[in-house]
Amino acid sequence: MIRRIATKLLLAVLAAVVLPFLAFAVFVDHEMAGRLSKDVVLYSLKGIAADLALRVDRDVEEWNSSVALLAADPGCYLAIDEAWRDEAGELEGESPEDRRLMRKTQIDQFNHWIAAKRGYDLFLLVDDEGRFVAASTVGRSGLGFAPEVNAELQSRSYAREVWFEAAKAGRAHRVDQISSEQCGLLPPRRPQTPLHPENFHIGFSAPIVWPRDELRPELSERFVGAVFALVNWSRVQEELDNPEVLRSYFQGLVGPDEFPSAYGWIWKSDADTILAHARPELYGQRVSQPPIALPEMTAAALASSWGLYPEYNFDGKRKNAAFRRTRGYDEGGFGWIVGVGIDNDDIFRPVRELRALLFKATLAVLLVSVLWTMVIARRTTQPILALREHVQRVADGDLGARVATASGDELGELAAALNRMTEQLEHGRAELIKAQKESAWREMARQVAHDIKNPLTPIQLSIDLCRRARDERSPQFEAILEQTLQIVGRQVAHLREISSDFHALTGARRDNFQPLELAALVEEVLELDSAWAQSLGVVITRAVQPVRVLGDRLLLRRVLLNLVSNALEAMPRGGALDVRLAQRDGRVVLELADTGVGVPPEVRARLFEPYFTTRSTGTGLGLAIAKRVVEDHGGAIELLPREDTSGTLVRVSLPTAESPA
Fold it and tell me: Which CATH number fits the domain that encloses residue 362?
C-alpha cells in the first residue's frame, strides 16, 4: 500500500511528464523560435535601414561637395567674366574661338563630370543676374542634347529660381525630388512611362564668389554667379534596388531557389509622400491616405528619427518594417525617411516548420499520460482538499477549527502542524490586539508631540526677542511686545487646535476642504517664523502670486510650518530662503529653496519615511505627515538638490480650486 506522499508525487510527476514537455514546446515555439526569430529580423531591418540611410547621405554629400568644388573652380568665374566682357564689347576684334574660350572650357569640364561621375543629368552656370553662361551639352548616355534643348537652356532667365536666390544670398541649396516636366530644363527620358525613376531629378546649387584679385578689386569677394546640377533620381533608386543590401541578407529565411520579399523605400521629409519605391507607380502617393492608408506608419516616422514601424497590412500581407531618417536640410541633406520592410510570411516560415514538429510530439505524449495522471491526482488531492478546507476556516477567523490526522505520511504531519499553529494563533490573537492598541497610541502621541514642537519654537524666539528689547530699553519695545503678544496668541490658538485634533485622530475629525487663498497662508507662516529667521541671520525672499486651492487650512498650515522650520534648521549660521508660489499648467506650485548644507541622495530617498530623521532632535514624522497631507489634497511633494548652489529645493504641487483634485 502506498502511504508516503513522496511516492505518490513521484508517480504523478512521471505520469505528467507531458506538462514540462508541452511547456518546453511552447517556450521553443514562442520564445526561442517565434520571438527570437522575429527580434533578429527586426534588429536586422533597423541595421539595414540605417545602412541605406548612410548610403543615401553619402551620395547627397558627394553631390553637395562636387557642386561646391565646381563653384570654387577658377574656370567658372573666368567663364562668367568672359561672358560679361563679351557682352560689353571688350572682346571685339578677337576670333570667335578666343571670345568663347573660357566658356567652351567650362562646357568641356561639365561634360567630363557627367561622363566620369554617376548620376548627373545637367550642369548649368549662370551669372549674378541669373543669365545663362554655360551648360553641359551631353547627357548620362553620352549623347548630345537636341538643339532645341540647348536653345531653351540658353534663352531662359534663372533669376527667379529658388536655387539662384539662395546662391545670391550666399547659401548652397538643394532641390527635392522634382519631375522633368516640373523642372522644365530637360525633357523626360522615358516619356512613355511618366513615373519612371529616370523622369525625376534632384538639384544642387552653390554660389560663385570672385576671389581676392588685385587686378580687378571691384570684383573681389563678390557674388558673380551660381552653379546648378541636376542628378537623376534613378541613382537614388539604385541604392534601394541593390540585391546585395536586401535580398541576399534575408536569403536564409526562404529556400535557395526563392527570393525574400524584402524591399526598401524613401519618403519625403514630411514622412507621408513616397519618393522612391520598388513599385514606381507609387511615386507621389500619400502614405496616410487611400489607397495606402497607413497613418500609423507616418506617425511612427514623425515621432522618431530611427526605429521600427508598427506591424501593418499592405497588399493583403502582414509586414514588419524599420526606418531611418537621413540628414536634415540644415545638415546638408533632405531629411528623407528611408524604410526597409519584409513580409511576416518570410519571417515566420522556419518557425512554422518547427512548430509542426513540436506539437506532433506533444500530442503523442499527451494522449498517453492524461488518463494515468487523472488517477494519481484523485488519490493525491483528497487529503489536500481537507487541509484547504481547514486553512479556509482559520482564515475566516475560526481559530477553534481542527483537522483530522488520519494518515501517517507527510500530509498527516502537516495536518498536525496546522493544528498546533492554529492553537498558537488563538493564544496570540489577544496579545497582538493589545500590542496594536499600544502601538497606535504611541503613534498618535508622537504625532501630537511633533505638532506641538513647531508652535513652541516661534513662541520661545518671540519671547527672547521681546526680553532682549526690554533689557536693552529698545525704543521699539512696544511694537515688539505687541508683535510678540500676537504671535503667542496665534500659537496658543494653534496649540488649542492641536489638542482638538488629538481627539480627531481617533476618527472624529473630518477634513474641512474649502477654497482658500494659499498666498495669504504662506505669508502668515513666514511672518510667524520671521523672528526665528532674523535671529539665525536668514534672509527670506518671496515671489508669491495670488492662487486659490481647495483644502483644509489647518492641515496645509502645518505642512508649511514644518517645511519652513526644516529650511531654517538647515541654515544655523545664516543663509537665504527663497519662497516662490505660482500657477503652472493648471496646478499650484510652491517652492522653498534654502542655502543649507543640502541632503545626500541616499538620505533624500528616505526622508518621507516615518520616524526617519537626520537630526538629533525631532520625531522624524514631520515630512511623513506633510507627504500624507499633500497627497490627501491630490498633490505631490518632492525634495531636490539645488542646481545653482548648495541647499535643498522643496516643491509642492496642488490642484487649483477650479480643477479636480
Answer: 3.30.450.20
Considering only CA atoms, which of 326, 347, 337, 322 is closest in space to residue 48? 322
Helix or strand holding residue 386 (H, E): helix 349-395
What's the CA gap between 96 and 102, in Å, rounded? 12
What is the amino acid identity at position 539? V
In this structure, are 381 and 421 located in the same domain? no
Distance (Å) of CA 164 to CA 62, 114, 157, 174, 223: 20, 21, 10, 11, 11
Query: Buried b vs exposed e over 285-304: b needs ≥16 C-beta within 10 Å?
Result: ebbbeeebebeebbebbeee
**Residue 589 DSSP label:** E
| 507 pLDDT higher than 50 | no
How confident is the model over 294-318, as a mean pLDDT?
Answer: 92
Which one of 479, 495, 510 terminates a domain? Answer: 510
What share of the chain has pLDDT > 70, as a percent? Answer: 74
Place 133 in a pLDDT band, splitting at 50, 70 and 90: very high
- pLDDT for res 3: 47
Residue 132: enclosing H or E segment and its boundaries?
Answer: strand 132-135
Question: How far, in Å, are 81, 247, 545, 634 from residue 592 at the CA level?
Answer: 70, 62, 14, 20
Q: At which residue does the C-alpha cell 527635392 appear?
A: 176
pLDDT at 245: 62
pLDDT the model gives residue 144: 87
Number of domains in the chain: 4
The residue whose grid cell reads 531618417 is 325
**pLDDT at position 6:** 47
Higher pLDDT, 45 or 133: 133
Neighbours of 441 (CB within 10 A): 11
Cis upstream peptide for 291 (omega within 30°): yes
CATH of the domain at 646: 3.30.565.10
Q: What is the pTM of this model?
A: 0.53
Read off the pLDDT of each residue in 78-83 and give the average, rounded to a whole number. Answer: 90
CA distance 450 to 338: 64
Give mean pLDDT, residues 390-403: 69
Q: What is the reported pLDDT for 299? A: 95
Evaluate if residue 275 carries a pLDDT over 90.
Answer: yes
215 and 364, same structural domain? no
Burial grade of 178 (CB within 10 A; 0-12, 13-18, 19 or more): middle
How far apart are the C-alpha atoms of 495 and 401, rounded to whole Å?
51
Q: Are strands 548-551 and 538-544 parallel, antiparallel or unpaired?
A: unpaired
* Angle (deg, nearest 10), helices 553-569 and 410-471: 80
